[in-house]
C-alpha cells in the first residue's frame, strides 16, 4: 500500500466524502469507533483515562472517542488545549455534545494551568495535533507534551500520530514529541514513522481502516510503499505432491574466515529453513568441520583457502549464490570476490564484508549482476554510497544507487527499506529492537538466498525475506524477550513466520 503525504491524505479524505456522500463528522465517528474498539479489546475498563485534545480535527477525533468511552462507563477526564481562537467546526460541534455529559473537563490556556494535570497511573490518549502540524510545538503546547512524557503513565496512546511529529517532514532533535506506547493510525502509516528523526516516539503501530477510498488511494502518485505479512504472503508458492529437493533450488552460501565461521553457520542454517531444496556452504577449510557439525543438512566446499577465502571460484549455473558474512576484507578475499563477480551472470545476494570489499574496490560495482540483492546496514551503505545529513537524503541516495546500478538494496535499520531498480521504496513495520544483535543480518542473507534459489523473483525475494525476517524476530522476542533473543532464535522461528504469512 502506498505511503501518502499530508496533502495527499487530505485529498483522499475529501474524495472519500464526495464518493461516499458522508461528512467530516461521519469520518470522525468511524475513526473514533475503530479507536474505541481497539481500546476495549486491548486496554479495557480497569484504568483511568485522560484524553488530551487540541482544537483541530485530531482533537475532534478525541472528543468523539471521549463520548464513546463515557457511554461505556470508562473513567475519563478530558483535557482541552485552548491556546488559539481558531477551531474546526467539527471540533466545536463535538465539544458542545461532550459538555452535555457529566465528563470532567480541564482547560489548559497557560503554563499555570499545567499544574492541575497529573497523568501518573493513567492511560493518556493523545489527540492534540494531527497531520496538519506545520511547525514545532512550542510554548504551552510544547510544555504540555513534555509533561505527558515526564509523568509515570500506564500507557500513552496516540491518535493517528504522536503530537509534535510531522506527517511527512523530519523533526529537529529538540522538537517536543509525545512518546507513545501505541500509535493508532488511520488508513496507512505516515511517512515520518519510518525515519530516525522522530521515529522513536511512535511505539507500536496499529493501522486502522476507516474505509477511505482504496481505489483512489492506489491511483495517487507515490514511489513509497509499506509491506505487511498479508501483502507478501500471497507470493508464497503452494507446494505440490510430486516434487523433490531438486525442484526447490540449490543455494550456495559463501562466507566465513578464521574467527568468523559463525557468520557462515548462521546464514547456512537460515537458508536451510527457507524452503530451499539443497544447501551448500563454501567456506575456508578452517570452517569445514564446524559447518558440517553445526549444519548437517548442508554440503560443504572448502576448496578455496585455509583461513580466508582466496583463489578463483568455479561458478556453476546450478547454484544460487549468497556471499559476504564473515569473509573479511583481506586483499586475497577481495580478489576472490572480484573473480566471483566477473563470472556470475545471475542475481546474487551480497552482504556484510562483501559490501565492504566492494566499497574499497568500487570498480567491482560494474560487475554486479543486474537485479542482485544487496543487504547493507546503514554504516555499510555509507561506505558504499557516501555520507548523508539526514534520513531523507539517505533515502534519496538509496534510490539513486538502486536505479544507477540496477540492483535491489535492502537497507537494514530500525525500519528496514527495500529499494528496487525502478526507484520504488518499500518499508516494513515488522521487527523488534531485540534484533539489534550480532548475526541477524547473516540470517537475512541466508533466508534471501534460499528464497531466490527456489525461483522467487528478486523483487519477491527481497520483500518476502524482509517481512519473514521481521516476523520471526517478533516471535523470537515474544518467546525469549527483546533482551535475551539471539540470531539463532530468529532462525528457529522462521517456520512459525511462514505460518503467519500463510494465514
Descriptive report:
This protein is α/β, with parallel strands linked by helices and 503 residues long. Helix content is 40%, strand content 15%. The protein is built from 18 helices and 17 strands. The strands form 2 sheets. It has a 10-stranded mixed sheet, with helices on both faces. Helix 9 (261-272) crosses helix 15 and helix 15 crosses helix 16. The longest helix is centred in the last third of the chain and has 23 residues, at 458-480. The model has no long low-confidence stretch (mean pLDDT 96).
Largest sheet descriptor = 10 strands, mixed
Uncertain segments: none
Estimate the mean pLDDT confidence: 96
Class from secondary-structure proportions: alpha/beta
Distance between the termini: 19 Å
The rounded Rg comes to 26 Å
Provide the helix percentage: 40-55%
Strand composition percent: 15-25%
Strand order of the largest sheet: 8-17-16-15-14-13-12-9-10-11
Helix count, DSSP H or I runs of 4 or more residues: 18
Task: Count every beta strand, where a strand is a DSSP E run of 2 or more residues.
Answer: 17
Using the alpha-carbon principal axes, give the shape.
elongated
Spell out the key features of this protein.
17 strands, seven-stranded parallel sheet, alpha/beta, 503 residues
Give the SSE layout.
Layout: H1 6-20, H2 24-42, E1 48-53, H3 57-71, E2 75-81, H4 89-99, E3 104-108, E4 123-127, H5 139-150, E5 155-159, E6 182-186, H6 196-199, E7 204-208, H7 214-219, E8 224-227, H8 229-233, E9 250-254, H9 261-272, E10 278-282, H10 288-294, E11 299-301, E12 320-323, H11 331-343, E13 349-351, H12 352-360, E14 373-375, H13 378-385, H14 391-405, E15 408-411, E16 417-419, E17 425-428, H15 440-453, H16 458-480, H17 487-492, H18 494-502
Parallel strand pairs: 1-2, 1-4, 2-3, 4-5, 5-6, 6-7, 8-17, 9-10, 9-12, 10-11, 12-13, 13-14, 14-15
Antiparallel strand pairs: 15-16, 16-17
Amino acid at each position: 500500500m502506498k505511503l501518502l503525504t499530508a496533502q495527499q491524505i487530505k485529498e483522499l479524505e475529501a474524495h472519500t466524502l464526495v464518493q461516499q456522500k458522508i461528512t467530516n463528522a461521519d469520518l470522525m465517528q468511524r475513526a473514533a469507533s475503530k479507536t474505541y474498539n481497539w481500546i476495549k479489546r486491548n486496554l479495557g475498563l480497569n484504568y483511568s483515562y485522560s484524553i488530551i485534545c487540541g482544537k483541530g480535527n485530531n482533537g475532534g477525533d478525541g472528543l468523539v472517542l471521549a463520548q464513546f468511552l463515557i457511554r461505556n462507563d470508562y473513567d475519563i477526564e478530558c483535557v482541552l488545549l485552548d491556546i488559539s481562537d481558531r477551531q474546526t467546526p467539527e471540533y466545536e460541534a463535538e465539544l458542545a455534545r461532550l459538555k452535555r455529559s457529566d465528563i470532567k473537563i480541564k482547560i489548559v490556556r497557560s503554563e499555570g494551568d499545567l499544574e492541575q494535570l497529573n497523568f501518573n497511573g493513567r492511560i493518556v490518549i493523545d489527540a492534540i495535533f494531527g497531520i496538519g502540524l506545520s511547525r514545532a510545538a512550542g510554548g504551552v503546547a510544547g510544555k504540555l507534551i513534555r509533561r505527558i512524557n515526564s509523568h509515570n503513565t500506564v500507557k500513552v496512546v496516540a491518535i493517528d500520530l504522536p503530537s509534535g511529529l510531522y506527517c511527512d517532514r523530519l523533526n529537529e532533535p529538540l522538537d517536543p514529541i509525545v512518546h507513545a506506547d501505541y500509535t493508532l493510525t488511520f488508513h496507512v502509516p505516515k511517512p515520518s514513522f519510518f525515519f530516525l528523526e522522530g521515529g522513536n516516539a511512535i511505539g507500536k503501530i496499529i493501522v486502522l481502516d476507516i474505509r477511505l477510498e482504496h481505489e483512489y488511494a492506489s491511483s495517487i502518485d507515490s514511489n513509497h510503499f509499506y509491506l505487511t505479512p498479508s501483502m507478501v504472503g500471497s507470493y508464497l508458492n503452494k507446494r505440490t505432491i510430486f516434487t523433490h529437493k531438486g525442484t526447490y533450488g540449490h543455494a550456495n552460501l559463501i562466507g566465513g574466515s578464521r574467527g568468523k565461521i559463525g557468520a557462515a553457520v548462521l546464514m547456512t542454517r537460515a537458508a536451510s529453513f527457507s524452503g530451499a531444496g539443497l544447501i551448500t556452504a563454501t567456506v575456508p577449510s578452517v570452517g569445514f568441520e564446524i559447518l558440517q557439525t553445526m549444519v548437517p543438512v548442508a554440503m560443504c566446499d572448502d576448496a578455496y583457502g585455509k583461513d580466508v577465502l582466496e583463489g578463483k571460484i568455479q561458478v556453476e549455473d546450478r547454484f544460487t549464490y549468497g556471499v559476504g558474512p564473515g569473509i573479511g576484507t583481506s586483499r586475497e578475499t577481495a580478489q576472490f570476490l572480484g573473480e566471483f563477480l566477473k563470472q556470475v551472470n545471475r542475481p546474487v545476494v551480497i552482504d556484510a564484508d562483501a559490501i565492504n570489499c566492494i566499497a574499497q574496490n568500487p570498480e567491482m560495482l560494474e560487475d554486479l549482476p543486474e537485479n542482485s540483492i544487496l543487504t547493507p546496514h546503514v554504516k555499510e551503505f555509507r561506505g558504499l554510497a557516501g555520507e548523508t545529513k539526514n534520513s531523507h537524503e539517505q533515502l534519496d541516495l538509496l534510490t539513486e544507487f538502486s536505479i544507477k546500478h540496477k540492483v535491489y538494496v535492502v537497507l537494514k535499520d530500525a525500519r528496514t527499506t527495500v529499494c528496487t531498480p525502478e526507484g520504488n521504496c518499500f518499508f516494513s513495520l515488522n521487527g523488534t529492537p531485540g534484533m539489534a544483535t550480532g548475526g541477524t543480518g547473516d540470517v537475512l542473507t541466508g533466508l534471501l538466498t534460499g528464497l531466490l534459489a527456489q525461483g522467487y523473483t528478486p523483487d519477491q525475494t527481497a520483500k518476502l525475506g524482509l517481512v519473514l525476517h521481521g516476523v520471526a524476530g517478533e516471535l523470537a522476542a515474544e518467546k525469549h524477550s527483546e533482551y535475551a533473543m539471539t540470531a539463532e532464535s530468529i532462525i528457529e522461528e522462521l517456520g512459525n513466520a511462514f505460518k503467519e504469512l500463510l494465514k
